[in-house]
Amino acid sequence: MSNFFFKVLRPGINSTFQDKGRYHMQHLGVTPGGCMDLDLFSIANALVKNSSNEGVLEFAYQGPLLKLINGKTKIAITGNVLFQIIKSNNETIKGECYRTYDMDKGDQIDILATKKSSYGYMALEGGFDIKPFCKSVSILSRAQIGPNEGKKLKIDNKINIKINRNNNKNYAIKISSKNESTIRVLKGSQFDYFSKKSQKDFFSKEYKISNLTDRMGMRLEGEVMENIVNTNIRSEGITKGAIQVPADGQPIILLTDYPTIGGYPKIANVTSVDYSLLIQKTPGEKISFKLIELHEAEQLYKEHLKSISKIIKEIREIN
Fold it and tell me: Containing H/E element for 257?
């Protein structure tokens, strides 16, 4: 373990280490977890020349304030994030997302807030020196699984970094973000449990994202869904993006830290191509749903992966 590290001066609201998750433990009741926004995660790692699954720091709404106690590193922040770097001589640098910054001993990174979005990411050159659990450094805070004793960052935590900065070149890229309010979905396995009116309402009415939203799920408020068969089903395997409807008729979208099984009927499932768009929505925002077919969803996702791969390739070429 290196002697280069940050000290947590302010932990932020929901700051955790994340990678792509652990996908071989669902039969044991352990969800894959991982980063909420795979696109931002991947771009952050590319900017600092890391491998595609290097662990990063994920934060929500308000991020942490970290002081580099020893060493020197290079960082990148992705998302729609307000942040600043406070140099050891008290010079303050207003941060820009999607570019790299050098940090030296005594410098601080102050991640103030996400702007009109939920999640942001901080990656650093070489990565964080954290111990994986079952081949992943993703933290599942509800189950207390992962590094940092499976817990969110706390004040005075010590965050070790793997290497001293090797590259003194800095660069920036431009990323355009979309703010669509329509989320494309596929029919759920219990779609026919709901009345024709409710099926129609689901795709024609808006839903408001409630405050009861976290990494596990997003509760919606809007038109009550009428179940004409049974409000409960035998528990079955489930996945992120599933839209369950409990007995109160108000949909719940399961997110990245979803349970591995569920016993509520599912009216729809969020498409992979729109998942990152969905999770960046904040409580109080309104969304609507559009039904598409499986072949459309597959093609859209292929095109999306191609566009992200192009961005990653361009970053690698700059490096």
Answer: none
**Could you read off the pLDDT of 193-239 as tens digits, one per residue?**
999 999 999 999 999 999 999 999 999 999 999 999 999 999 999 99
Query: pTM for this one?
Result: 0.95
Cα separation of 80 and 300, whole Å?
24
Nearest alpha-carbon partner for 4 in 136, 128, 137 = 128
Alpha carbon distance, N-terminus to C-terminus of the chain: 27
Task: Give the span between the Cα atoms of 184 and 237, in whole angstroms.
Answer: 22
Q: Distances in Å between the alpha carbon of 162 and those of 204, 207, 264?
A: 51, 44, 44
Question: For the chain, which domains are there?
Answer: 4-161 (no CATH), 182-301 (2.40.100.10)
Please list, in sequence order, all residues whose beta carbon lies within 8 angstroms of the beta carbon of residue 293, skipping any fewer than 6 positions away.
Answer: 186
Cα–Cα distance between 119 and 18 in angstroms, integer? 12
